[in-house]
Amino acid sequence: MIANWDVARGKIVSSSIGPTRTEQDFSEHIQRTIKIDEKAEWIFIVDQLNTHKSESLVKLVAESCGITIDLGRKGKEGILQSMDSRADFLSDESHRIRFVYIPKHTSWLNQIECWFSILVRRLLKRITVRSTEELSQKILNFIDYFNQHFAKPFVWKFKGFKDHK
Fold it and tell me: I need a surface site. Which of 2, 63, 93, 145 has the fewest CB within 10 A?
């Protein structure tokens, strides 16, 4: 499952359920999400997975933002040369569509990960299914129910570590 969490409204905006989470799956998911409002500014908070720094994602963002510069060649030159150069391009604050990469081992900072734990606790631990299609439908039903009845922004309660003097 790939999903987007709307931080301001506290709900799932877009979700994709499939057998894989490949570069193509992620890029297609982002493309479907952007089509919700093709003129909007989109900021995606993501972890450090290589699929979040892919060639296809760079090409999607460039096309969607009307960026016509030469992107180079993957592994050879330009923006597409490396994961670092692709991440720099994808996180450029001047782009209407951009990605913010959370540090490694900090998934608790990514609010969609917090929502995934809600999905596990409230649905997945308690169900039995006979097929992947049934599982997918139950998840989609849960998303609809959650968005209608429980949607609200997360309230961060952590106030930092106390000084131990």
Answer: 93
